[in-house]
Amino acid sequence: MFSHLPEPAVSRKGLMISAGLFWVIGGLILVVRSGMVLRTGRIDVVWPAALGVILGSLKYRLVFTRIVTVNIRRINELSPHKDKICLFAFQSLQSYLFVIVMIGLGIGIRYIGLTGAVLATIYLAIGTALLLSSVLYFRGANAGRRP
What we know:
elongated
């Protein structure tokens, strides 16, 4: 029944740009959520915001750069005989499963009674890391370079 559906295929450059945009969207959602928590006025904004940006920068540097580098390498090596590859191939299947688990955990932490400052810090840290990491995809898209 579904065998005649076209594959949503894009060029490698388009795939890297799409991946970067996915990471930007995820990062912006978390940064905006952090801002909504901080905006309630019930907490001091400076320390959670500063800590969130610092932790996010560290997470970017220590964890996400490796993940993005592996993804870009995979994109460059995927189906060398094809000009276009599936839009959803920027991550492995295991990574998609990990993302689903992380989204579930993100939803769960809202209901375990964390203070607004802690919640905002976590959202801002992960959002910052995602936004910084997205730049690597955009760099990788330029002339097929690796980050």
